[in-house]
Amino acid sequence: MLYEAKLCGVKFSPASIVLIYQNKKIRRIIPLRNFSKYSDYSLAAERLKNNPQHRGYLEAVSQSQLEKLHIILQDHMQGYSLQHSLASFHLDPDQDLNKLDDEELARKKGQMDELFEKNQKRKDDADFVYDLEVDFSKSTREKCSWDDESDDEL
């Protein structure tokens, strides 16, 4: 790897990915010429990462990071603010996912999958415990009337 990007961002006009390298004196701007608000952001990010002209510069940037940058650009092209785009990457446990459109739902599910992979305990981990038992006896759940009815029927 010849270049290792330390910071990456977007430039809205013209639509570009900006990479800043280790010594912060070198900056590379990669224009996204055929990217529009109707483009598939994951396919565009994959093509950019596999492009022989940019492959060496983007080696240290993950595919998911490139996808997020493309999403921010696409949201800007659709008229959304930067705050809205950044808030869409935040997982809110109280948010009703049934009210989201298909694209935002897929985005949230992808984030949940990433978070699961990051927090997952594997057999090779030092703090892995086989057959871990947790006591959940201190329940704060309220009893519902239908819970009592279903117990009587059984």
Provide a descriptive summary of the structure in words.
It is a single chain. By secondary structure, this protein is of the alpha+beta class. It has 5 helices and 3 strands; from the N terminus they run βββααααα. The protein has helices at residues 41-50, 63-77, 82-87, 102-119, 145-153; strands at residues 5-11, 16-21, 27-31. Strands 1-2-3 form a 3-stranded antiparallel β-sheet, covered by helices on one side. Strand 2 (16-21) and strand 3 (27-31) form a beta hairpin.
Question: Can I get a quick summary?
Answer:
The protein is 38% helix and 12% strand. It has five helices and three strands. Strands 1-2-3 form a three-stranded antiparallel β-sheet, covered by helices on one side.
Uncertain ranges: none
Major sheet attributes: 3 strands, antiparallel
Computed structural class? alpha+beta
Percent range for β-strand residues = 5-15%
String of helices and strands: EEEHHHHH
Q: How many alpha or pi helices?
A: 5
Distance between the termini: 65 Å
User: What is the overall shape?
Assistant: extended
Biggest sheet, strands in spatial order? 1-2-3
Q: Helix amount, in percent?
A: 25-40%
Please name the defining characteristics of this protein.
single chain; alpha+beta; 38% helix; 12% strand; 154 residues
SSE arrangement:
Layout: E1 5-11, E2 16-21, E3 27-31, H1 41-50, H2 63-77, H3 82-87, H4 102-119, H5 145-153
Antiparallel strand pairs: 1-2, 2-3
